[in-house]
Amino acid sequence: GGGEVEMAGASCLLEASGFTANMTSPAKVRVPLYRGQSSTLAVTCQKPGYQKRMITVAPFDSTRQARLASGVNGGILGAVIVAGIDAAADNTKNDWRYPVAKVVLEADPPR
């Protein structure tokens, strides 16, 4: 119906600095995180009848993102206060995460 659905059976390769993993979709993969030193992930998937597709996802500082988001809810004054707190914070111990890697495969064009 034109909407996106989770596709089973696609062959996927996940690559990062010093790390690779092969999987078949759908899959959950735990990858090592080195805080601000974590590398971008490249995820390539392919399946017969579909075009091969590669996406990249970069790690993000989820502690800092949550802190800054809370300041936005407090209006301009809240954002200024939280920005000051963030600047003074020891961000070396923050929690880092990767976003979900969502690879959308498109059907091969008709011949």
Description:
- This protein has 111 residues and is α+β, with helices and mostly antiparallel strands.
- Helices cover 23% and strands 24% of the residues.
- It has two helices and six strands.
- It has helices at 62-72, 75-88; strands spanning 11-16, 19-24, 41-46, 53-57, 60-61, 96-97.
- A four-stranded antiparallel β-sheet has the order 2-1-3-4, with no helix packed on it. A two-stranded antiparallel sheet has the order 5-6.
- The chain starts with 10 loop residues before the first strand and ends in a 14-residue tail after the last strand.
- The mean pLDDT is 81.
For this entry, give a set of tags.
four-stranded antiparallel β-sheet; alpha+beta; 111 residues; 24% strand
Q: How many β-strands, per DSSP?
A: 6
- Main sheet: strands, sense, barrel: 4 strands, antiparallel
Structural class: alpha+beta
Pattern of helices and strands:
EEEEEHHE
Helical amount among residues, as a percent range? 10-25%
What is the rounded Rg? 19 Å
The first-to-last residue Cα distance is 21 Å
Query: Could you list the spans in which at least 5 consecutive residues all have pLDDT below 50?
Result: none
Shape: elongated
Give the overall average pLDDT. 81
Q: Strand order within the widest sheet?
A: 2-1-3-4
Strand content: 15-25%
Count of alpha and pi helical runs:
2
